[in-house]
Amino acid sequence: MTESEYKELAEILFEGEDLKTPEEYEEMYPYRKLGKKAEVTRLAPSPTGFIHLGNLYSALADERAAHAHDGSFFLRIEDTDAKRKVDGALELIIESLGYFGISFDEGAHLPDTDSVNVYAPYTQSERRGIYHTFAKKLVEEGRAYPCFCTEEELEAVRNKQEAAKVLTGYYGEFAVWRDKGLDEIKAKLAAGEPYVLRLRSEGDPEKEFIFKDEIKGEVKLPENITDIVILKKDGIPTYHFAHAVDDHLMRTTLVIRGGEWLASVPVHMELFESLGFKPPKYAHTAHLMKIDPETGGKRKLSKRSDPEMSLSFYKEEGYHPHCIKVYLMTLLNSDFEEWHRNNPDSDLNDFPFSVKKMNNSGALFDMDKLENICKNELSLLDENVIADFLKAWALEYGTDAQKAYFADEEKMLAALRLYMGVGQKRRRKDLVNARQALELMSYLFEDAAAQESDPFRVDEELRKAILQDYLDTFSYTDDNGEWFEKLKEIAERQGFATDRKLYKENPEKFKGETSDVAEVVRVAVTGRANTPDLWGIIHVMGEEKMRDRIAAAM
Description:
Layout lengths: L2 H11 L8 H7 L11 E4 L9 H15 L4 E4 L13 H11 L6 E2 L20 H13 L3 E4 L3 H14 L17 H9 L5 E4 L8 E6 L3 E6 L6 E3 L7 H11 L4 E5 L6 H11 L5 E5 L2 E4 L6 E3 L10 H7 L3 H12 L3 H7 L20 E2 L2 H14 L2 H15 L2 H5 L4 H12 L13 H7 L19 H14 L6 H14 L6 H6 L8 H13 L7 H8 L1 H11 L1
Parallel strand pairs: 1-2, 2-3, 9-10, 11-13
Antiparallel strand pairs: 4-5, 5-8, 6-7, 11-12
């Protein structure tokens, strides 16, 4: 077709639409006035109602990259696939990421004002006119055309390609509507035949180009030769086309996305070239991997198989968001761990994050390491901070009994001091998450009948004798030293060694040693064979509850 025919076709295809010009949009959305090193990044999820660890991993990288040099981080909702859209998904995204301290400078959830959301709308379904303006431009320039192929015709082409063992897709000789004349197109339009709009690719199947990835470095890729769909039959843009238009007009400078999108780079580069846009930088992240417990090999984290893939898992189990953030930072930049160890009191945002230092081969998600980080980080937090966190979790996810733990705030703080080792030379690292923490401390607040107990390692007769002796000699006013001396006296009366060296030399002469007697009391009082300082526990629990629990054990 001639240049004038292309323009005529564009007017026909977009007849009746009140569209702005590309120049008007360029003026509406000017380039941002930012520093030389500043980056503009975005998170662009689909509103499917599922927000996962990969989203948080990318969002943290986006947020750190943008804010490292006073750039901007925005939220765009890519909802062009109406079938996948779930009501309330936007609110879920904001709530889930907000829980982990991820906030946006602009985006779909904020009001449009002169100072915020200058590049609105940030929801793709509200940007139809913008996409059609640039699609019309491509038609006018001969870079896009309508294709009236039916699904059956496309399937027949695909079968033919597979039989010939050639690349499948709509290109070259298989792109039957690529070079049709204006009259034939008009006839189809007049008959009301549905069509899609395709990009007229100018790629050479024999050529490759060098693409510089911000994480992977230089990658050699083939030129795109496929006439991809840019507008679907209902006029809704495809992801490929919409993201190119959006990232240009929102002035995105850096796109951090999953490695599975690397194969789409040739298409995206050609789209930017055909639209006359400068492409953003791309950083393709490695997949989050885990060790498969069955095979021992590495595999990708899966939505279906791994509950830890869902962000709701961490909230429901009560993992502190700070701990999750610290762990993800260790996956994002390998030198973060050493920096954090050397700067334990520094704000995480002070770490010199770099996209170029991100893992190139697959970040290994390790639940054991995450829990070790949780133990360490929680041990460093103020007990009031942890108490508030546990209370908030209990009110949303806890049992009625756990909610009642917080009726006595001083008792809860005292319990936390025991489990955090406050005042000791070395802080205890017992706490992992809210669910585990409240279960650990449950014996301090609940009756013995409500709990399971570890087994006693002495027979019933000896157990009763030890516990009766303990009750007979116990005084709540004894300090820790006096209390322990009485425990040694009980041990001696009941046939246990009070001298460890003597016990090791003649174990057959004794029923055990003082620590075994202490364990009998510990299991009776707490139901646990392993706890913090027993004297401290008794003075948090109170004498009445201690005696009730020992009576139950007897």
